[in-house]
Design goal:
The protein is α+β, with helices and mostly antiparallel strands. Helices cover about 15% and strands about 35% of the residues. Helix 1 runs antiparallel to helix 2. The protein starts with a strand and ends with a strand.
Length: about 400
């Protein structure tokens, strides 16, 4: 599986950091100064980030009212109904300029501020940039989880230049999707297509806040290079059913739309291959829509729950923790058991077990085959609902 990153960090601002550290260290010995500078530079140069740094951006001002609790998983609209997906039978092919005119009003620039710490444990505000898609005219915006995760402030800029701070953010790290809510009404919303109708070789267009460049979004075009890709991302999870494209995707494009030639959103740009050219990935919109719906209606994605922590071994999936009171605990699974089959499916990796669990239904009874002290055993578990965190 190729190494995938969410966007390589641009090595800008190193000089400024060096100057700041020199002011602090100027009274210390030369040896300590050199050692500290080397450590600082190595940390900056080695960093990998999912966002595009904002060039020469000032620290974001405090919002007019306090930002929402970005980790509350609070429902936004329990009665929300997803927008319709347009079928290929009624699509009208557009030129790229026509697509840009149609879609640009639905695309927003996202600017974030997170607090990091230097090697002296001093807080350093760091700005990043991403992209979002207006999914509902009431101010609901789809983006990537990695764009907003850990952000202290999230500022959204519309295509007409109006700016808003997020009042709520609901995230799903498992699929790298997030919903931002802003206090706005009557916004132009994106038109959705069917990603399952795509074929390899057809044209696509990507629009996004690449490199946080001033003046408007960047537009690139290409084709669908492959369908159904799976990649492992830096936080350790696996993203499935991705669209691979050769349309140029750059830092800052995260969360922006991948469009078919009718100007309909068929994917959400999320990652690039670290050591390759023209290999980018987008989350397919059709499976993403159910996640988006749950984030808006429930505040989080409700999935089947077994209640184990596991890792991949040569013999199967080793359980190294069983949550007390969980379905796994009630089924008699213990630390040290090695799962080999789940609900009739052979599982050889942790990722396969996770996918097998979430493909079931809450309340469903499943058979689990496992090894304990070298002997094969079977048990059944009734899957529960993922607890709120």
């Amino acid at each position: 599986m190729p190494e995938i990153v969410f966007w390589l960090k641009i090595k800008a601002g190193v000089g400024n950091l060096m100057i700041q550290r020199m002011k602090i260290l100027k009274k210390r010995s030369i040896g300590v100064v050199l050692l500290s500078l080397c450590l600082l530079i190595s940390l900056v140069l080695a960093g990998v980030n999912c966002l595009a740094p904002v060039p020469q951006a000032p620290v974001l001002p405090s919002p007019a009212k306090p930002a929402g609790d970005y980790t509350s998983n609070t429902p936004i609209d329990p009665a929300w109904i997803p927008p319709p997906q347009r079928s290929g039978a009624v699509k009208i092919a557009l030129s790229i300029p026509e697509i840009v005119r149609k879609v640009t009003p639905n695309v927003v620039a996202i600017q974030t501020e997170v607090i990091t710490f230097d090697i002296f444990l001093q807080p350093i505000p760091r700005q990043g940039a991403g992209t979002g898609i207006i999914i509902d005219s009431n101010g609901y915006i789809v983006t990537n989880n990695h764009v907003v995760q850990g952000a202290k402030n999230i500022k959204v800029t519309l295509s007409d230049g109006k700016q808003f701070y997020a009042i709520r953010v609901n995230r799903d790290p498992y699929t790298d999707l997030a919903i931002i809510q802003i206090d706005a009404k009557g916004l132009p919303k994106a038109e959705l297509g069917h990603s399952e109708e795509l074929i390899v070789g057809e044209g696509v267009v990507a629009i996004g806040n690449a490199l946080a460049l001033q003046g408007g979004p960047t537009v690139t075009s290409g084709i669908v290079s492959y369908l159904g890709r799976s990649i492992k991302v830096p936080i350790g999870t696996v993203l499935y059913d991705l669209i691979q494209t050769d349309a140029a995707i750059n830092p800052g494009n995260s969360g922006g739309p991948l469009l078919d030639m009718a100007g309909q959103v068929i994917g959400i740009n999320t990652a690039i291959a670290a050591e390759a050219q023209n290999i980018g990935f987008a989350i397919s919109i059709t499976p993403a829509l159910s996640v988006i719906e749950q984030l808006i209606r429930h505040g989080q994605v409700i999935r089947p729950y077994l209640g184990v922590a596991s890792l991949t071994t040569r013999d199967g999936v080793l359980i190294y923790h069983v949550e007390p009171g969980s379905p796994a605990n009630k089924a008699g699974l213990k630390t040290g058991d090695i799962v080999t089959r789940f609900a009739g499916q052979k599982v050889t990796t942790r990722e396969e077990l996770v996918r097998a669990i979430v493909s079931q239904k809450i309340g469903q009874k499943v058979e689990i085959v496992f090894l304990r002290e070298g002997k094969e055993h079977k048990t059944t578990a009734i899957l529960g609902e993922t607890p709120k965190r």
